[in-house]
Amino acid sequence: MPITLAFLAYRIFDSIWIESIRYFAGAAGVALLCWLLAGRIAHRRIQTRHATNADRLREVRQSMWSMAVFAFVDLMTVALIVAGAIAFNLGPPVLATILWQTAALILMHDAYFYWMHRWMHSKAMFRLLHSVHHLSRTPTSWAAYSFATGEAVFEGIITPLMIVAITIAAPAEPWAVFIFLAHQIARNAFGHAGFELAWPGFTRSPWTGWMTTTTHHDLHHSEGRYNFGLYFTWWDRWMGTEHPRYHERFEAVVNRRRETAAQGSPGHGAVSP
Fold it and tell me: Is residue 268 predicted with pLDDT exceeding 60?
């Protein structure tokens, strides 16, 4: 198909539509789950402060802006396809290729996010790129894409570049990209949910401790200096940026009695005791 202005406009609006479906499916899905389980997980609320409707509205509004930015960044994908740097498998899907490409995309994204995230917390970059996201001191799932324009660009450009990387070995499997993107928004929304759904011992188990939890990212929002990882805890542990009381805070939340949560506690503390 020739690359015309009409085609580019169609691509932009199509990208906004697809991103909107992903965002609202992930953010609304997690919000709905937390609402349905409210009676069962009230004692799993991580912070004593409750997000307000104004907070949620700001997060949705900023996320919608980010999706528009993502749509323009997606034109980079078109350019890379035209240049031959990206190729998709248009034949029958190959399971082995789907599996390794999905794993590769997730691992590459996690590494990129950690270092990009740390860079955005530098004194020079924070106010310019990342401060909008940290307006969500008590985040909700709606904060998943609540980025300033600059951060949205850096969040978006990595996906086509990663597809270029896997294309070097084999044409990209559409299912691998789909699974990666579904995993990305699901983990993102759960990371901002404000309720810890993992079980006691999760963070110290060799089977699960390498995965981030909602508490892991919530501590980052409330204190800022630690826990820069997205999917895995490896980089924070290797680089010494894991919150020193992460395990303690996690266990305090998951072992809290329902009666304690029902009593409530006033204040604006970062993480409830």
Answer: no
Rounded to whole angstroms, the Cα distance separating 74 from 181 reads 14
In this predicted structure, the answer to whether residue 84 has a pLDDT above a threshold of 90 is yes
Which residues are 172's β-sheet partners? 88
What number of residues does the chain have? 273
Asked if residue 192 lies in contact with residue 210, where contact means CB atoms within 8 angstroms, the answer is: no
Q: Which amino acid is at 128?
A: L
CB 117 within 8 A of CB 228: yes
Reported pTM: 0.91
Residue 35, exposed/middle/buried by CB under 10 A (0-12, 13-18, 19+)?
exposed
155-177 pLDDT, tens digit per residue, is 999 999 999 999 999 999 999 99
Give residue limits of the domains in the chain.
5-263
Q: Cα separations (Å) of 178 from 17, 142, 174, 220, 264?
A: 15, 21, 6, 28, 41
* Contact predicate 155/188, CB 8 Å: no
**Token digits of residue 177:** 């990209």
pLDDT tens, position by position, 223-261: 989 999 999 999 999 999 999 999 999 999 999 886 455
Match 């300033």 to its residue by tokens: 148
- Tell me the backbone φ, ψ of residue 255, rounded to 5 degrees: -100, 5
Tokens 């909107």 correspond to what residue?
A: 20
